[in-house]
Input
Amino acid sequence: MARGRKRMPRVLVLLGSPRKRGNSALLAEKIASGAKKAGAKIETVYLHGLKILPCESCFYCQKPRSKGCSIEDDMQPLFRKMVEADAWVIASPVYWFNMSAQTKLWMDRTLALSAYMKEPFTGKRIAIAMSYGGEDPFDSGCINALRTFQDAYRYAGARIVGMVYGSAMKAGEIRKNKSLLRQAEELGIELMIQ
Output
């Protein structure tokens, strides 16, 4: 990088649905579009396509002088991407009253981030995108998932800049909700100016 040039902010988009073009992914795409308009470099990771094993609760990552997570899988390169990103966009559909299993596996394993850098969540900006079936975010379980994100990231010292969520069952159905898509793009812009 040339002297005096500012580094382009990086946004890591984490898609937690088995549908690559599903509703939560489309909301994340709109958030990413807003962030890109605000000058960010975007990288998208499709969690369903990765081999991410469950946390083994060995606490190896928490030991003094730990070199990282003891599990060798696709989280290893993802840890580096997460540390390097200025912001994350986390997208998940609601499955059985909470976030998808793919998203939860990834989230559990982020415990090891502290072995890769001191206070890895402090100052991290996060946007959440969720889709759910049904009409009500409460009885669908969407609020359960959003609350999980809020509680976890408040505890860890990260900042949730905003959340967008909406009802859509069939893949791509969220496109009909133009107002929500605009909100998602605005959230992407806000993610970069905070």
